[in-house]
Each structure stands twice: as C-alpha cells, then as structure tokens.
UniProtKB/TrEMBL annotation:
One GO BP: lipid A biosynthetic process
One family name in Pfam for this protein: Hexapep
Domain UDP N-acetylglucosamine O-acyltransferase C-terminal residue range list: 239-330
Taxonomic lineage of the native organism: Eukaryota, Viridiplantae, Streptophyta, Embryophyta, Tracheophyta
Descriptive protein name: UDP N-acetylglucosamine O-acyltransferase C-terminal domain-containing protein
Originating species: Deinandra increscens subsp. villosa
Keyword Lipid biosynthesis assigned: yes
Cellular component per GO, a single term: membrane
Top-level lineage group: Eukaryota
Molecular function (Gene Ontology), one example: acyl-[acyl-carrier-protein]-UDP-N-acetylglucosamine O-acyltransferase activity
Keyword Lipid biosynthesis: yes
Coiled coil start-end: none
Length: 338
C-alpha cells in the first residue's frame, strides 16, 4: 500500500511531461507555419526561443534555442540564429545572415539598424548598441548601416552613431577579426581587413582595401587611406595617406605598402611611378625643393608622374589631410642635406 502513492506521483509526472512536450511541438509547428508564404521553404523556430508576434520572419529562417527576436525586427530569408543569439530594436537583417551563439544585434533605443545580406556575426559580438560618446543624449535617434558579405568575428563591438544627423557605416566584404572595436560615427569602406584588437575611435574614416595588423589604435577623426597598411601595435594619431605603410607609437610613415599594391593588382609601371613620387615628396635630395606642399605641387605638375592616376590620388590624399580641419599626416623622417 505504501508504494501506491509513489506510483501515482510517477504516473502524474510522466503525464505532465508528455503534455508539456506536446504543447512545445504544437508551439513549434505554429511558429513555423505562421511565417511561411507558400510552404516551400518553411522557417524553424525552437520552442525555447522568444519571437515577438509582430516580428517579420522570412522564408527558411532558423532560430535556435534560447534566442530572442524583438517586435520591430525583420529577418530576411534564410537567416540563421544560433543558440543564445538576440536581435532587438528597429533592426533589419538581409538574406542569409548568420548570428553565432551569444551574438547581440540591436538595442531598444530610438533609431534604426540596417544590415545587408550574407553577413556573419561572430560569437558574443555586439553590433548596433548605444555609443559610448558622453555627448550622446538619451532619446536621440542613432543609426548603423552594414553592407553585404562582411565577416564580423567573435567579441567585436560596433556602435551606432552619436547623433541623429550622423550614421555609423560599414561597407561590403570586410573581415573584422576578434575583439575589434568600431566606435560611433565611423565610416568603413569595403574590402578591408582588421586584425584582432583593431580599435577605431569615433568619427574615423577608413577607405577601401586597408589592412591593419593586430592591436592597433586609431585616434578619433583620423582618416585611413585606401591600400594602406598599419603595423602591429601602432598608435595612429594622424591621417595615413593612400598606398602607404605606417608603424610605431606614434605611427610614422615607413614607405609604400608595396606588397599590398602587388597583391591588389597594381601594375609594375604604377608601382614604379608611386615609388618615384614618394621619394620626391618624402625623401627630397636637397633643400631647394622647398617644403612638403611645394614638393606635392611639383609632383602634381611632373611631366610623367602627373599622367599616372594613382600618383595623383596619392597627392590628393596628402593635400586633403593638410587642410585646417584635418589632423595632418603621420610623421615622416626628415632627411639631412648637410
């Protein structure tokens, strides 16, 4: 007789577990069916995830366990949310985006986040949250726009703009390696490679095809030119001209990024012309050639070098950095004429 109550409790527990399991399956089936259009590519939403009914879910979306999807979120077709990833706020993900475990995209603050197609956001990366600018005012709209085909690796942080009139922008085909940081109002172009622990302060402009080595710091409002290379451990406090290589604390010009230019398809003629221009600008053979601005003007009017678009682009990049509202270019070692 003593075993009868125990047997009854066991039967009750088994019955409850079966009921919960059936309810979960029913919820999963409902969640999957609720967002498919024609049934050809249904979405999968794990029953332990919390997906707001107002969220817009595309076809073929997979939402793993313990994820959250907010009320204003739009997930494009074939997106995949790995376990424990979260999308919130006014956030739109394009088709075929992947969020690895622990990734967080968006924040419940005014503004909007737009992320293009085929982006991978790594484990525990945080994309599109409030900036760390002390001038930010609570309630202001702030924005982030990310292009297509970017790989954003683990523990990366990318912040929204600091004011409604600006926007943080990431272009296409960038590789942003682990633990890097892109602060508010930065503008990053396309086809860049940021090695681990690349840290960009606010309002930094990075053009296209730039490459940073690990553990570098870029001061706010600096410009990083196209096809440049920043050596590991550098502290960049002024602009880096196009096609150049810098290194050190504080970073100094160390010549042209010759290997990067070759890999990017620059012809031998273009590289020879850039080397000749670089020597005229930064390695003058006598003092009669005047100051930096005089040497830039001389290259710009040179009979042969002025016919090479890459040379003119280098000259323009340096001239832009010398304007009053800019930070100037990284230091270069002056030559002695004695």
């Amino acid at each position: 007789m003593a075993a009868s109550p125990l047997r009854a409790r066991r039967q009750l527990a088994v019955g409850l577990l079966r009921t919960i399991h059936r309810q979960r399956l029913s919820t999963l089936s409902f969640a999957s069916d609720a967002h498919k259009d024609d049934g050809t590519n249904p979405s999968f939403i794990h029953p332990t995830s919390v997906v707001h009914p107002n969220a817009i879910i595309g076809q073929g979306v997979s939402v793993g366990p313990f994820c959250t999807v907010g009320s204003s979120v739009v997930l494009g077709n074939d997106c995949k949310l790995h376990p424990g990833s979260h999308v919130c706020g006014n956030t739109k993900l394009g088709d075929k985006c992947i969020l690895m475990s622990g990734a967080v995209v968006g924040d419940n603050i005014p503004g909007k986040i737009t992320i293009g197609c085929n982006n991978v956001i790594g484990h525990h990366a945080v994309v599109g949250i409030k900036c760390q600018d002390m001038k930010y005012k609570e309630g202001n709209e702030c924005f982030l726009q990310v292009g297509d085909n970017n790989e954003i690796r683990e523990h990366v942080s990318i912040h929204r703009s600091s004011k409604p009139s600006d926007i943080t922008v990431i272009g296409d085909n960038n590789l942003i390696m682990g633990s890097s940081h892109i602060a508010h109002d930065c503008k990053v172009g396309s086809n860049n490679i940021f090695a681990n622990n690349t840290l960009l302060a606010g309002h930094v402009l990075v053009e296209d095809h730039a490459h940073t080595a690990g553990a570098i710091v870029v001061h706010q409002f600096c410009n990083i030119g196209s096809f440049c290379f920043i050596g590991g451990g550098s502290v960049v406090s002024q602009d880096v001209p196009k096609y150049t290589m810098v290194a050190g604390d504080r970073a100094e010009l160390r010549g042209l990024n010759l290997e990067g230019l070759r890999r990017s398809g620059f012809s031998a003629t273009e590289i020879r012309s850039l080397r000749a221009a670089y020597r005229k600008i930064f390695m003058p053979t006598n003092a009669s050639l005047g100051g930096l601005e005089d040497r830039l003007a001389d290259v710009e009017c040179h009979e042969q070098l002025s016919l090479v678009p890459a040379v003119l682009s280098l000259v323009q990049s340096i001239q832009e950095s010398l304007k009053e509202d800019r930070r100037g270019i990284c230091k270069f070692r002056s030559w002695s004429f004695s």
